[in-house]
Design goal:
alpha+beta, BirA Bifunctional Protein, domain 2, Rossmann fold, 2 domains, eight-stranded mixed β-sheet, five-stranded mixed β-sheet, 16 strands, elongated, binds histidyl-adenosine monophosphate
């Protein structure tokens, strides 16, 4: 038997219904914010992620699925959505669109060669939003408010919003220098990865999973002490807009994010439900004002986030939330003879084209077993076809809740169902 690959999953049955529910909710929320749908390819040129996500990040150095295609091109399965969206923004010259800013959302699979565990997949699904061409401080708060609203609408109660700022280039460079100076004397007490990060990407040392509890890191200087006035002002203003929207948050200077492209606002939203496990960050994002330029586009401010939907599903399970999933059909068509079957086929076809949700018997079951099948499918009405009724252009309709039965003229069936469903 061929089995699925490590870190991948099959979604079917009740889970399939839950995923469809989640996808619909995401679409509705993005519609209410007036974000447009974008779909970019699952594979892109390897160079895009090296330049876009960052040469020194774990994602690019350790986790990408890279391969040569038959034309000897270096291809990478996308590990995240932002780089592809930015490439598309530049390639399709969206910066020239009449409607600005460009506000986009996506929902699709990403690929990271990580060690699989609960909440950490190799094929993962992210819903994300990106706003390009806008530096308004409110937009930072708006982008944070989208996953917050999603979690609220799903009924999640144990959620914590952590925000931080990495400041502008000047603030970040000053902080970088201060951090290197502080860490250098202690470098041998840090893990091997952190020793490598010191010169290349010292901020990443702060969210190291190995050294996280180390006192050296706990006492390290924080970015908040190195912000220049305009960066400070910007951060205050983002907090002001979050407060206007009643979004509770905590300022956590340890949030630096694992990708290179951020400046100013960064944030992570965690599930704080008991026993969730180590992979508890449900969504993360931030501002990346330099990335469009780095990928050869015009200088364009931008901000976005991505939410891990596999993890979100785990949080929904852990909090015992029952989603209002669609688990009912309107009609089940039942018959025994071939002439009755022909009518069932015609009727089902007709009703479906008028928006009625129908299923019909296809397993050669007895009438008694067909009643059971209708119950399993949660059918609201049973349409019982028999040759005598059909001669009178009628069908027996049974309400499967009240158990009332009546004969309805076939020409009036659609009206009857529309009124009663
Ligand atoms: P990220 O923090 O790498 O950011 O991923 C965002 C979310 O994707 C995480 O918070 C987590 O919920 C989920 N996730 C990441 N890796 C896995 C995995 N192996 N298994 C399951 N879920 C996972 C980004 O990807 C950025 N592109 C976000 C962004 C958009 N920044 C600006 N715009």
């Amino acid at each position: 038997m061929i089995t699925k690959q490590k870190g991948t999953t099959d979604i079917y049955g009740l889970n399939g219904k839950k995923w469809l529910y989640l996808n619909n909710l995401i679409q509705d929320i993005c519609r209410s914010y007036n974000y447009d749908y974008i779909r970019t390819p699952i594979f892109e040129a390897t160079e895009l992620f090296h330049r876009g996500v960052g040469e020194t990040t774990d994602i690019v150095t350790k986790e990408t699925y890279d391969f040569k295609d038959r034309g000897d091109r270096s291809i990478t399965l996308r590990p995240e959505g932002t780089a592809g969206v930015v490439r598309s923004y530049i390639e399709n010259k969206m910066y020239g669109d009449a409607t600005q800013p460009v506000k986009l959302f996506y929902n699709g699979t990403m690929y990271r060669y990580e060690r699989p565990q609960s909440g950490r997949m190799r094929e993962l699904t992210q819903f994300g939003c990106e706003v390009l061409g806008c530096d308004d401080h409110y937009i930072d708060a708006e982008v944070i408010s989208i996953p917050v609203l999603l979690f609220k609408m799903l009924g999640l109660r144990n959620i914590k919003v952590n925000i931080n700022t990495l400041g502008d280039e000047e603030s970040r460079n000053n902080y970088r220098e201060a951090l290197i100076n502080y860490l250098k004397p202690h470098i041998n007490d840090l893990c091997e990865d952190c020793q490598k990060r010191l010169e290349k990407n010292p901020l990443r040392i702060l969210d190291c999973k190995v050294d996280g509890e180390n006192a050296i890191l706990k006492n390290a200087p924080t970015i908040l002490d190195y912000l220049n006035d305009s960066s400070k002002e910007r951060f205050e203003s983002v907090k002001h807009y979050l407060e206007l929207m009643d979004i509770e948050y905590e300022v956590n200077p340890k949030i630096v994010r694992g990708l290179d492209y951020y400046n100013h606002t960064v944030f992570e939203i965690e599930a704080t439900v008991k026993d969730f496990g180590a992979q508890n960050v449900l969504a993360g994002g931030g501002r990346y004002n330099k990335m469009v330029e780095m990928l050869d586009g015009p200088s364009t401010p931008a901000i976005g986030f991505a939410c891990g939907l596999d993890r979100l599903m785990l949080a929904i399970e852990k909090e015992d939330i029952e989603l209002n999933i669609f688990n009912q059909i309107d009609c089940f068509l039942m018959y025994v003879s071939d002439t009755e079957k022909d009518m069932a086929v015609k009727l089902a076809n007709d009703l479906r084209s008028n928006g009625i949700i129908c299923d019909m018997e296809n397993m050669g079951r007895s009438l008694k077993a067909q009643f059971k099948q209708a119950d399993r499918l949660n059918s609201k009405f049973l349409l019982i076809l028999n040759d005598t009724d059909l001669e009178n252009n009628e069908v027996t309709v049974k309400d499967n809740v009240t158990k009332e039965e009546q004969k309805i003229n076939i020409d009036e069936l659609l009206d009857f169902l529309n009124v009663n469903i």
